[in-house]
Amino acid sequence: MIKETIVVEGKDDIANVKRAVDCEIIATNGLAFGKELIDRLEKINERTGIIILTDPDHAGKKIREKIARHIPDAKHAYIDRKLAIKKNDLGVENAEPQVIIDALNNAKAETVEKRNEFVMADLVNNGLSIGKGAKENREKLGDILGIGYYNSKQLLSKLNSFAISREEFERAVEAL
User: Are 63 and 54 in contact (CB under 8 A)?
Assistant: First the structure.
């Protein structure tokens, strides 16, 4: 799996990148993102690194610049406009899987063995899945760890992909 977290613009981009590679992905949901997302990306960059993969258009360039201003060591993956267009629609969501793989390889994406330190029982046993207050506990845990809010299944994936240590997880759970 790719070590770095890939930053894209939207849900369609997430789906297409997931078809090409095994990785964690975060969407900016356009250009109007604020400090909360930047703070989250900075924390994730410290853990895994990030690769910015935005559409090859003006908005994509502005998103890339905005993130890079705050995270200058972020890696950048680029897709040629000619390879990201279908029916006059330009974007990462239109690129073929090999085009995405090539862009990530050109950005020097690193690969790591998929980590499975955390399992669903860790979430259930700590009040993070199933039961009253689980959603609120996941929200608080995400804030404490600086990774944001996720549903149970996504949180499990993020704990493993973002290299959260067992000790760090236990400290965060204790703080709940």
Answer: yes
**pTM exceeding the 0.70 threshold for the entire prediction:** yes
**Distance between CA atoms of 149 and 138, rounded to whole angstroms?**
6
Q: Does the CA dihedral 76-77-80-81 come out positive or negative? A: negative
26: helix, coil or strand? strand
Of 129, 128, 121, the C-alpha closest to 145 is 128
Whether the CB-CB separation of 13 and 29 falls below 8 Å is answered with: no
51: left (phi over 0), alpha (psi -120 to 50) or beta: beta
Report the alpha-carbon distance of residue 37 to residue 149 in Å, rounded. Answer: 11
φ/ψ bin of 2: left (φ > 0), alpha (ψ from -120 to 50), beta (otherwise): beta
Q: Give residue 19's pLDDT band: very low, low, confident or very high (50, 70, 90).
A: very high
| Pick from 62, 72, 96, 74: nearest CA to 4 | 74
Distance separating alpha carbons of residues 91 and 15, to the nearest angstrom = 12
Mean pLDDT calculated for residue range 100-116? 96
**Beta carbons within 10 angstroms of residue 149's beta carbon:** 15
Give the C-alpha distances (Å, rounded to integers) separating 24 from 80, 111, 159, 174.
Answer: 23, 12, 11, 26
